[in-house]
Each structure stands twice: as C-alpha cells, then as structure tokens.
Description:
Layout: H1 8-14, H2 50-53, E1 65-69, E2 75-80, E3 89-94, E4 101-102, E5 117-118, E6 124-129, E7 132-137, E8 143-145, E9 155-158, E10 164-168, E11 171-175, E12 182-189, H3 203-211, H4 213-235, E13 244-245, E14 250-257, E15 263-270, E16 276-284, E17 293-298, E18 310-315, E19 320-323, H5 338-347, E20 361-363, E21 374-376, E22 383-389, E23 394-401, E24 406-414, E25 426-428, E26 434-439, E27 446-451, E28 456-458, E29 466-471, E30 477-486, E31 489-496, E32 502-504, E33 511-516, E34 522-529, E35 532-540, E36 546-547, H6 554-557, E37 565-570, E38 577-583, E39 596-602, H7 619-630, E40 634-638, H8 648-652, H9 661-676, E41 679-689, H10 691-702, E42 709-713, H11 724-731, H12 738-744, E43 757-762, H13 770-782, E44 788-793, H14 803-821
Amino acid sequence: MRNLxxxxxxxxxxAGCAATSTETAAPASSPQxxxxxxxxxxxxSQALTLNxxxxxxxxxxxxxxxxxxSDDSQSVLFARQASAAPLxxxxxxxINDSLAVELALDKLHSADQQxxxxxxxxxxxxxxxxxxxxxxxxxxxxxxxxTRQRSAIDGVRYLNNGDIAYxxxxxxxxxxxxxxxxxxxxxxxxxxxxxxVKEPTSYIAKQQHRLIQYMALQQENAKVKAQxxxxxxxxxxxxxxxxxxxxxxxxxxxxxxxxxxxxxxxxLTDKNYTGSSEHDIMxxxxxxxxxxxxxxxxxxxxxxxxxxxRFVVLDLNLHKQVDITIEGLTGFDEDVLAKVKAENxxxxxxxxxxxxxxxxxxxxQDWGWTQSAIQWHESEDKLALMLEATDNKDRWIASVDxxxxxxxxxxxxxxxxxxxxxxxxxxxLPGTDTLYYLSEESGYSQLYTKAQGKNARAxxxxxxxxxxxxxxxxxxxxxxxxxxxHPGIYNVHRVNLVTxxxxxxTQWDGNLDYxxxxxxTQxxxxxxxxxxxxxxxxQPIGGEINQLTSYTSDAFKNYPxxxxxxxxxxxxxxxxxxxxxxxxxxxxxxxxxxxYPAVIFNHGAGYLQNADYGFSGYFREFMFxxxxxxxxxVVMDMDYRGSKGYGRDWRTAIYRNMGHPEVEDLKxxxxxxxxxxxxxxxxxxxxxxxxxxxxxxxxxxxxxxLFQAGAALRPVADWAHYNAPYTSNILNTPDVxxxxxxxxxxxxxxxxxxxxxxIMSGVMxxxxxxxxxxxxxxHLIELEKPTFExxxxxxxxxxxxxxxxxxxxxxxxxxxxxxxxx
Length: 822
C-alpha cells in the first residue's frame, strides 16, 4: 500500500497539541439545539497561523472519495488523490479489514465498477472501462472483455433477451449472445436524406435525355441499381438496417434505447447552439509559450438563448420515425411570465398583452444526480421523461405514446419562482405502472408514488428535505436521506412501499451521504461532524455503525478545534429562524466591559447549506475562523435566505430580488451577536467568495452602516454577466426582466460604498469572470470611491489551487479586519 504520509510542515507545526475532543453531539430531537447560553470554547496551547491553515491541505489527510460497494457487498472501493497530484490512486477495502489495498494499474479493468447495468436475472453485470465493454458473471466473478478499440463507447445496456446493446456516437449496436454477432441496429445521420435518382426537369435536361441515347441509358441503369439496392435491403436479412436521416439542422443531445431493443428515444438540439460566447475570450496572460492565450468562455445570461429540445421516437421494427408533440404537457403554452413582463413594460411606460404560445422544453438538467431524465419500464414498452421548460417555471413527468408520438402529463410541478435544479429523482416501480419521484409541491422535497391515471400518494410528509432516494433490490423499500430531526442533521431513512411505514436507520449527529449495498443489507456512509472530516463507515440495516477508514491525520485530529455552535437566529423580517454557526473567542466573557469585534462569513453558491453539523467543505474558512477566535473575534456563518436544506420558500425568497433578503438576515445576525455574544456592532466585518463575494458587495453597498469592512472574493458584480443555467432561474433573463437584474446586481448599487472594501479575483476564473471585478473597479473609480483595494491572482481559476494564493488572499483579509475592527 502506498504511504500517503503527513507533510513535514504539518507534523512540525501541530504535533504536540493537546489531544482534546472539543465536539459534543447535537441532541437530535431538539430543533433549538445550541441556543444560549453558549459553551466555552476550548483553550489552545499553540495558536494557529495563516501559514499553517492555508498550506497544502494534504496535512489534514488524504481522504477517500467517490466510494462505492463491491458487487458482492463485502468490500468498498474508493479513490484517493493528493491535492497537487495529477493522478489519483484506487483502493479496495473489505468491510472487516483495517487497511485498504491499492489496486494495480493492470487490475483496474477487473475491479468492481460503480456504474454498470444488470441483466434481468441479476446474474451478469456489463460495464464500460476506458470506453470498452466488459461483462462480469456475478456468481463466479469471471470477467470477459467484449470490445477492444480506441474509439470510446458511450453507453451500454442489457436487452430483455439477454443480449447486450451499446451506442457509440449516433449509432446503436447489439451483440447477440448466442453467436457473438455484432449487429448495427441503427445508424443515425444528422443530414438530409439522399435524393436518389432524379428525373430530368428542365427543358434542356429533358432534351438531353431524349436526343442522346447514352444519357437515357445511364438514367435507366441508375434506376435499376437503386431499385435493386432497395429490394436487397428489404429481402436480405444479413444486412444492417437502413440509415436514418433526420435533417441537417440539429444534433443528437441524448439517445436512449428501449429494453426490448425496438425503440430509440432521441432528444435533438439546434446544431448552432453551443452555450459558448460568440464575442468573448478569457485572456491567459501567463501562457506556456510566453504569449497571451485567448481561452474560449461560456455565454452570459444576457446573450444565451437555450433553444430547447425536440423529441423523436425511432421504431426500429417498422423503420418508422415518430415526432413527439408537446401538446400533452399541461400548461405547455401558458404565458408564465406574463406578470413579470407586464411589470417591466409598465416601468417603460408601455403595456403588455399576454398571448399563449408553445414554450421551449428540454430534458431536465438536474445538477446533482447520476441518473437519466429518460426512464424506460423494465418489462413493458413504457417510457417516462422528466422535462423542464427553459423558462424554469415547470417540471413535468410525462409518459410517451411511442406509436403516436404524444406526451401524457403524469405529474406537473409548477413554481412561480423557479423549479429546483435538485431533488428530481424518479423512476418506475418494477412490475407496475407506478412511478416514484421527489417533488417540492408541499414546500419541501418529499417522496411520492403515482400509478398512471391515478392520484399521487405521499410517502413522506413534513417540514424537512428528502433526497438521494434508492429503491431496494427487492423493491419493497425506498431508502432516502433527510434532515427530519434538525435542519442541520442528516440521517438515512426508508419507507415500506406497501405499508407506508417510515423508519430512521442511522443515528448520526452530523452530515452524511449513503449508498445501499447491492444485496440490500448494509449502508455505506460517508459521514462527518463539525470538527471531524468525512470518513467511511459501514452499518448493517438494524445494526451498529462501524468506521471503515481513518485517513484524518493525527496532526488534525489532535488539535483542539472549536466546534461551531449551531444557533437559530430569530428573524425580524418574516423569515422565522435563520440558522447559523457561531464561533466564540478565546477566554470568552459575556459580561466583560470591552465588547468583542466580530466577522460574518457568507458562504458561496447561494443554494448551499453550511450551518449544519457536518464538516464544512469550506475547511480553510473553518480553520481561519478558529484562528480569528484565538485573536479575540466572534465569528458567525449564516445560512441566509436562498440557502439549501430549508425548503422551497427559503430557496425562492430571493426570486427577482437577490442580495436584499440575505442582507436582512445578516442584520439579524449582527443583532443576535450583540445581544448574545457581547459584540460591538460598530466593529463587525464580513467576507465571502463567489455568491459570498456578491453578498459582501450588496451588504456594503445597500446597508453601509452594517459592516465596517468587507472582503469580496471572486465576486459576482453584475448578474447579466453570469451564466444562464443558474441566473435565469432566479432573475429570469435580462431582456425579459431588466428590473430584477438592476435590483439585484451590485454594480447598480456601488454608489452606496462608504466603508473599506477589498476585491480579490483570479484572472483565469471561468465561472465568475475576472471582467466582473474589472468592471466593478472601473465603476468605483469613476464614482471616486477612495475606500477600496484590489488584489489579482494571475494563474487562479474560481477555486484557487496554489497554497501561496490562498495564503496571500487570507493575509489580506486578516489584515483588513485587524486594521478596521480592532
């Protein structure tokens, strides 16, 4: 096994720190966990330094990632990769073993694969490795390689008769198990069909054929050859099926073959749509050749116009193309933006007349799943699609009449704000005409089943979020993850599909992800607590949890980190409670005369949960907050409105109004700290990156007395310049809803800046473009604002990679707070 040891720096710096456990479990039954009075922070014998916490993170441990079960449910496979390493290593660990074994390169093809497909008897598993097809006999473990080629195969599936089908590019093939014959089921060409032998039409052409016998003979011979070829294609069973010609204006964006091999579902997209900018590049000033390299970039929401998709069914038996119409989708032609358009028209002194028109639709683009939006019934010619409107207001689960090319709406989820791009899992219950799915229709993501033509049945109910659903191998249960006992505590549950009984299977007091073993008897957990990074655990259903991996370094484990306390901040803005993490300063004294300075951290992504009981993905910020407490600061980290984990209304509170509800929540956070942690409200600063940088801008621009200083990292300055998939959900599009963009973009409010502001951006940021900061800086210059400074990082993308960049960035943030808040 490869030795992945600690860095000498980490060992030297943190060795010898007291092995003190500072974290206590949150009471799972109490939604008011960790309210005042707050616990005293641990005392440390050695203060943290920025050089330590911004160093190469490998000193914390090189953790298991992308873990999954072996096919026999007796071991777990995972990868590990040092932060600066170009390659990863792969491991396998038995559930009763204390150490993992690194897999050799020549064994990777035979390792159990995470993604594969099973035949109907569950006796064989087919999978792709390095673009080639392999088949494993599960009873013996025997593996056979079926293809060996350079051109990668895109997908594979078992057919109902036991044969294997695969697709490569726009062609579909079948491997006949009895003979090994490889048959091309379909060749799809996005081109116009050949015109064949044409009869002369002009006077000159007709005259040529009438007067010149050779030309007439050539014409007749061409007809005979064409007729012969057509007859041969119909009569000769040894030939592959005729080519499908679908026109030259589109490309195939999704292809799916039915389990019986008869039908192909195609999603087609306008070939001219790329999602890339036609006008812009990102200049790489430090190109490897010494010159400036122009790097292509994605389109901005202000210029991006997704065309939607067109859907086609190919009947391979009849060689018949059936175009699917969208009329069967409930509300397919509604003017769902009528109120928004009317408001914007009125602002310009105009009127808007609403009219109905077909909307653009596409397969839903869920950002968190690995399943397909195309779900075939395992034993019948039934097909269900999950579709969304490109205006973001509707999600449909629709069945497809394969013969007639019609949609039937099985479920419509409409949202006047936007339909979530998460919590969209769905599928068929085996042997039934019943669909199971997640929906936010109650205000929270919950689990439902619905038989075709019947009403839906809610399997879960409550003010909590259900996610990550898994159908058990025997189809008796659906497993799921939920934060049922507290918004910041996640556990695994299951529901019996017959009785409807729900039961909680794990008793974890932090955050976790899970995977059900192939035999349905065990859970693989990737779990963490506030001061404990993710490790792998195995828990038999109904049994005790056992830790599988231990990759957290002793240096990290032995340091007495302060576990942030999760508090519920009362809202004065109608938002009920705002959950937040709070870190207290060393030697905290609620009654001391001199009040404490404070910092509020704004998490990124907007739709993300950070004030939970798990180990934060913002691990550098977690350590930085510990450092700040050692320097006498109170630190708060809020799940402001728009954050994940709190239901639909919390998510959509920022619709057409980004940056304003969140700032209201930050105001309540400052007030809470003043009352409960002895904070001086005249000595509070804020910082954050990406969405957190945007929120720093909005705080300093629209509430200039709230914070005394702010640091905006890789910040969004103008939402019209961000990408369409994210922004158009929340603000619609600039051409439709300029009011929302002007209301929500910091650059429109920059005149409000009166306090010190630090702007820091990576030049190679292909997410929030460096140009955002450039435009903001120029605007502040023209506004003659003297209170801002900038720092640029020439080689860094959105997520910084170099420890030296992280160190420079946080030195500047720390210096800002020390200068302005102390």
